[in-house]
Amino acid sequence: MFYRLPIPRMSTSAPQGHTWTQRVKKEDEEEDPLDQLISRSGCAASHFAVQECMAQHQDWRQCQPQVQAFKDCMSEQQSRRREELQRRKEQASAHH
């Protein structure tokens, strides 16, 4: 289960605290496609760390290590996915 956090609006005025809240999924609620993507990526733990940090600090600037770890995980996953798709494409071309 993942928690959806609101995306803060950035402004040029002095930074204010954000109202980050954790939302618990209800039993009859369908899983969000973004949550499904993150779950399949293998990056759920780093995503959860970002959410935990944001819930605790309510300031994205204090969560940069967690944000960077999640970004790195997703980038690595996307790279693996591209490589797999390329291999499949090459295999399909070899069979035709």
TrEMBL record:
Species name: Papio anubis
Keyword Disulfide bond found: yes
Amino acid composition bias (Basic and acidic residues), ranges on this chain: 78-96
Biased composition (Polar residues): 10-22
Matches recorded under PROSITE patterns: CHCH
Annotated CHCH domain residues: 43-75
Region (Disordered) location: 1-29, 74-96
Signal peptide: none
Xref: InterPro entries: CHCH (IPR010625), Coa4-like (IPR039870)
Swiss-Prot/TrEMBL keywords: Disulfide bond, Mitochondrion
Keyword Repeat in record: no
Location within or outside the cell: Mitochondrion
Cellular component, GO, one term: mitochondrial intermembrane space
GO BP annotation list: mitochondrial respiratory chain complex IV assembly
Organism superkingdom: Eukaryota
The protein's name: Cytochrome c oxidase assembly factor 4 homolog
